[in-house]
Inverse folding.
């Protein structure tokens, strides 16, 4: 299976599933769709490193929003990690994950426990997440 097919398959999995729906009364609003320009943002990993959305420029990118207690996220993050590992040698691919409303310590412990290699960043107040959608995770 080629890498583009793998990413499209993974994208399909994320669009049909979501573990955490924040408010069942509201309609899901996607503010960014596949192929759109990514909004400007920056996030930290809790260790002093910052990711700036400009780093996506010129790259095929996979951005995942998740929460470590979300069952669907727990099932799908290993797939994302496989994609990250498969694309790690490709200079024109960039894969990152952003934890929604969690502390760096919680996320780091979960990453260590599962042996994930995906670069992770923290969005403790949903300010970055809100640029992409109003509810549901996992979100790709």
């Amino acid at each position: 299976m080629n890498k583009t097919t793998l990413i499209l398959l993974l994208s399909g999995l994320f669009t049909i599933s979501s573990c955490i729906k924040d408010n069942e009364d509201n309609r899901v609003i996607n503010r960014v769709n596949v192929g759109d320009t990514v909004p400007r943002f920056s996030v930290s990993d809790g260790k002093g490193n910052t990711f700036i959305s400009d780093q996506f420029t010129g790259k095929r990118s996979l951005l995942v929003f998740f929460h470590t207690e979300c069952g669907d996220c727990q099932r799908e993050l290993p797939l994302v990690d496989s994609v990250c590992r498969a694309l790690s040698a490709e200079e024109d691919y960039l894969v990152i994950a952003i934890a929604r409303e969690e502390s760096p310590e919680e996320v780091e412990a979960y990453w260590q426990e599962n042996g994930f290699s995906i670069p992770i960043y923290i969005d403790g107040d949903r300010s970055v997440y809100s640029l992409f959608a109003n509810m549901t995770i996992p979100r790709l």
Notes: The first strand starts at residue 42 and ends at 44. Residues 71-87 form the longest helix (17 residues). Residues 3-10+40-131 form a domain with the Glutaredoxin fold (CATH 3.40.30.10).
